[in-house]
Amino acid sequence: MATATNIGTELDLIAHLLRRTGFGPTPGELEEAGELGYEGTLDQLFNPGDADPLPVDLIRRYHADHNDLRIPPSSGSFWMYRLVTTKTPFEEKIALFWHRVFATGQTKVIQGKVMISQIDMFRKYGLGSFRELLVQLSKDPAMILWLDNQDNHKDNINENYGREILELFAMGVGNYTEEDVKECARAFTGWTIANMPYMSTKMRNNTLRPYGYIAWQFEYDESDHDDGEKTFLGETGNFTGEDVIDIICKNPATPQFIARHLYHHFVADELPVPQWPFEGPKDPEAIQLMVDAYFANDYSIGAMLRAMFESDIFKSEVKRFARIKSPAEVVVGTLRLAGDFDWPTDDVYKATAACNYMGQQLLGPTSVEGWMGGDDWISTGSMVQRINFASDTIGKPNKRGVKAIISRIRDRHPSGNVEPEALVEDCLGLVGRLRVEDGTLNGLVAFVREQGDVDPSTEDGAGKITSLLQLIVSTREYQLA
Predict the structure, then answer these.
(1) Which one of 265, 346, 364, 480 is at 20 to 30 Å from 93 when CA atoms are compared?
(2) What pLDDT score does 1 carry?
(3) CA distances from 479 to 290, 326, 392, 453, 466 (A)
């Protein structure tokens, strides 16, 4: 691989960190992080300030449908605003991670407000104790309805949540028995939803009436809880839901499973999850590093990630650009680079729809398994959508972010015309220290030469720089994080 910038510098390492913990740094974000240094940037990521996204009351004033979030495009766009405008993108990256692992969809839940509340919960607990996160997940109304735990009764258990917390959320196939699934389900009887009308004393009806679109709340129905003795993962007792979560969290299989998910999302593409019972992790040393941090820090997800980000494993050059961006990363990263959404706009719906067309509907995963990621993101159709969206978004020189890039190039070259090699180097650096292969680099330089002289201080020069940026975000390398 060749590059127009020195990949060995600390700034390149910081850009790598910001791609993993966010959606790719804007020039301004990279400059600020460069002043802090790698360790200072890491400290700030884990101790963020105010997210300061576009105000919700302003959004709702211009989008009436965002008041009740009745339909998925409204809910997804409500989150899209925050993804694009937040000053703390790591929080959103964590929420997006857990949304993929604990996949819940508005297609079944119906109510967008409870879906957004679930995302809020991921922000609040996503970097803390995995035990507390599982407790909050088990009490989450969207998850309860998604996996039918409102229909899990002491005299008629429903195994859906008991199965998925073991299979997909915490441990993985091969680390529990069918009997463990049943005993887990028994422990979660009585964990249900308030404000859902009764069809009978034991069956709750998923309906909008008579309460309408109000946010459901967790309710523990002690009279419906099976308080009999249970044997779960080799331990016996009168277990509640929190008891089985304690047993799950101390099992060695749990951090192994979660670490592999974290590696897949924050470090490098892994095999699809269904293959994990049969194929070991690509980087066992990285997994063990996070497992050790998990047990040394009271099951802390943040400690697992910090240990990884501080390691030579993460910092190595082979881990850079080792992931295919998810549709959300492509869409959000490009919008943040372009400087969109300073004010409510219907373009937010186009961005949310673009995510869907690329294969990742926000708040609408295709199944409880979520999205596999990696190579699954790329197909002929999705690649066309990715390139078209990125090129169209970055192709307007009047956008705040594009103007900022042109301004920086103008300041670097006050004498006027910029040599093609220098212009390409500047642009690759300003879109997040993008690393490209020799063939791509040569093609970009040739494109600039064909355009003729480029003077950043002129309207013609700004247009040519914008065209080069469009070509850069259309490259194969831009699809990698």
Answers:
(1) 346
(2) 34
(3) 27, 9, 15, 29, 19
Q: Which two tokens stand for residue 75?
A: 């809910």
Q: Specify which residues 192 forms β-bridges with.
A: 219
Burial of 7 (0-12, 13-18, 19+ CB in 10 A): middle
Based on its alpha-carbon atoms, the radius of gyration of the chain, rounded to whole angstroms, reads 24
The string of pLDDT tens digits covering residues 382-417 is 999 999 999 999 999 999 999 999 999 999 999 889
Q: Please give the residue that has the higher pLDDT: either 283 or 7.
A: 283
Burial 129-164 (b: 16+ CB within 10 A, else e): bbbbbbbbbbbbbbbbbbbebbbbbbeebbbbbbbb
Backbone angles phi, psi at 421, to 5 degrees: -60, -40
pLDDT of residue 196: 65
Residue 7 to residues 12, 316, 319, 333, 440: CA-CA distances in angstroms?
5, 11, 12, 21, 16
In the chain, where the domains are located = 56-319
Burial 303-317 (b: 16+ CB within 10 A, else e): bbbbbbbebebbeee
- In DSSP terms, 219 is beta-bridged to 192
Q: How many whole angstroms separate alpha carbon 92 and alpha carbon 69?
A: 19
Cα–Cα nearest to 103, from 374, 362, 333, 331 = 362
The CA distance from 479 to 418, in Å, is 27
pLDDT at 367: 85
CA-CA-CA-CA torsion sign (304, 307, 310, 312): negative
- Distance, CA of 155 to CA of 115 (rounded, Å): 30
d(CA 334, CA 344): 18
Give the contacts of 445 (CB within 8 A, at least 6 positions apart): 420, 421, 424
How far apart (Å, rounded) are the C-alpha atoms in residues 321 and 12?
Answer: 11
Cα(352)–Cα(340) distance, integer angstroms: 13
